[in-house]
Amino acid sequence: MLLTTALGLVLSQAAIAQETGAPAGITSPVGQAPVEEPPQQPEVQAIADIGGVLTPRGRLVLEPSLQYSHSGVNRLTFRGIEILSTLLIGVFSAEEAERDIWTAALTGRLGVTDRLELELKVPYVYRDDTIRATVPTVGDDSFDIDRDLSGDGLGDIEVTARYQLNRGQDGWPFFVGNLRYKSTTGDGPFDIARDSDGIEQELATGSGFQAIEPSITALFPSDPAVFFANLGYLYNMSDNVNTQITDELRIGKVDPGDAIRLSFGMAYAINPRASFTLGYKNDFIEKTRTEYFGNTGQTTQSSRTLNVGSMLLGWSYQLNPDVSVNLGLELGITDDAPNTVLTLRVPFGMNAF
């Protein structure tokens, strides 16, 4: 549902005008100034995590969802010297990696007041990774690596609070403050089993690190569209992992890179039931610092920052006042982004108090 509250307000005014004979939009008796209705906060249903849809007071929404994410990498690497564009001295290595992630989640949202909403999300994750690589060795020999791993289990449970900061009067956009906490209920990359060479034997279902993300969302209605923007900062908490990877290598403190997150776009109401959304989001992820101990204690960091950018497409249809169907699609724009992320959400609303 997109802008159905605002559209419903216009329709109800028209109905009253038809019964009373007053011009549309005037509901007060003749001779009195019309009662000014406060602006109604618009809704952006088709894309999750924007933080712009607040549940009314006393309303409980249960939202089952299913998300599929696919990432693929095909890389040909040359290690050597280029004398001419057609003369290379060295070796080539080829790598192909495919990652598929299915996430089934149940999300509950409760409208505590008309301006405050609390949310709890419990995910279950299934992962399947396939890696095929050709690794050169001394001489002309090489060997192939062919690994196919899968794993499933409880993911990282998330708790979110959202608060509407203003009422959107005098032509101002609506501002919503968001605060999200991500737990470590899923198995992290240092919790899974590894062989004697330190190679993982199963896949993680969580990040392994707690995180806090404050953000702010701006919603500007321009009927029949709503423009939205979100800016946030993801703070990943460091942890002393203290895990033995191999007989010679032990991991100490790990400080995952924080991230600046932004998104913006437009939601357009086709009619009171259907809408579509077009947007873009980008995460700028800092380098991860890892302390490891071999013969001597050392600290290293990831070789580069990550730039994860995706195009956002969304569709929403309101089946009835209590149920809607939302489909979101993310298309990776940058090299670090997943190729595709497809999310189906079906929220069910009910009165809790």
UniProtKB/TrEMBL annotation:
Keyword Signal among UniProt keywords: yes
InterPro entries per record: Beta-barrel_TonB_sf, FApF
Chief location: membrane
Keyword check for Signal: yes
Cellular component GO terms held in the UniProt record: cell outer membrane
Localization: Cell outer membrane
Keywords, sorted A to Z: Cell outer membrane, Membrane, Signal
Secretion signal, residue range per the UniProt entry: 1-17
UniProt cross-references to Pfam families, sorted A to Z: Phenol_MetA_deg (PF13557)
Source taxon at top rank: Bacteria
SUPFAM superfamilies according to UniProt: Porins (SSF56935)
Name of the protein this chain belongs to: Transporter
Organism lineage: Bacteria, Pseudomonadati, Pseudomonadota, Gammaproteobacteria, Oceanospirillales
